[in-house]
């Protein structure tokens, strides 16, 4: 049965009461189809689109429940991208700045509970991402010896004798800590493994909840910039849960237990430094998760060398301006000469106008990309269009060894 978001001819009136009709249909086991969920955007519901959108779909979820869980197969990767944003980051570095929409850039979305009050978790489009246009930010207030769990994904991945290789990126305030919690089951037995560091203050809670704690290895720290004060930290570890099934991926929020140097700013503006002080009162918590990658191979996918690809351009046209600049339009097509490319899920496209700098143009899900009105300044004699191959586990080929096509600038 159809339910209209605007409430036209709909039981319950639609809009913020769309779930009323869903409740009735669910009770009688009748299938439902939601029409015009764009009501939230088109009617400019407040206080802002993201908040209203999350509230509306939260009511739908509360009524109908979650019917599908993932991951179900590996590799599993998500950077929580919703196919829109105000910037694009790739591996912690900003590639583009400005609003964009590309629904094909979506990755699997977490099942966040937007009604939580202690720690709020939300897709953050404004702050610097690790990859793509968004990240999950967790913020609120937390006592130093408390924890707060946020569910991200359910799932059902039989592991058999496989070893899991897990990589994820975090950004944390000085005393905020973010742990990755994985749930496993085998027959009637369940186990929880927590990937976390600085857990001294929550040891009692971890024992009570039977967490097995693994301190992941810090493998990389991204460079800091004006929009990314803390920088991203990439952590990795490997675990083997023979015969178990991966059933949950959660985040555990907690505070660092002891401060070697704890600064407190008094109302008078006097700054005191107190060494070795336990933080016992409620403190501001702020941390972000940039991506999650879970795979069964210890090494990343091996990308074919640039010579293994054919890259061609067609429909090339040029226009000139009175200021001496040129604009070029073209269609790029590439294909792997031999072998299987099914594990390559997308391609980042760059143009190199000089040896020192590559400019991000966009992303393609298929082996075709259109360039429109690309400006070429005087003095540039050639353009190198680079196709950066990206794998299903979130890794990407290094730009300097990626396939490319060189175009001579028309004189």
UniProtKB/TrEMBL annotation:
Enzyme superclass (EC): hydrolase
Transmembrane segments: none
Gene Ontology cellular component annotations, sorted alphabetically: cytosol
Cytosolic endo-beta-N-acetylglucosaminidase C-terminal domain ranges (all copies): 303-409
InterPro entries linked to this entry: ENGase, ENGase_C, TIM_ENGase
Reaction(s) the record says it catalyses: an N(4)-(oligosaccharide-(1->3)-[oligosaccharide-(1->6)]-beta-D-Man-(1->4)-beta-D-GlcNAc-(1->4)-alpha-D-GlcNAc)-L-asparaginyl-[protein] + H2O = an oligosaccharide-(1->3)-[oligosaccharide-(1->6)]-beta-D-Man-(1->4)-D-GlcNAc + N(4)-(N-acetyl-beta-D-glucosaminyl)-L-asparaginyl-[protein]
Keyword terms, alphabetized: Cytoplasm, Glycosidase, Hydrolase
Catalytic activity, EC: 3.2.1.96
Family, per entry: Belongs to the glycosyl hydrolase 85 family.
Name of the protein described by the UniProt record: mannosyl-glycoprotein endo-beta-N-acetylglucosaminidase
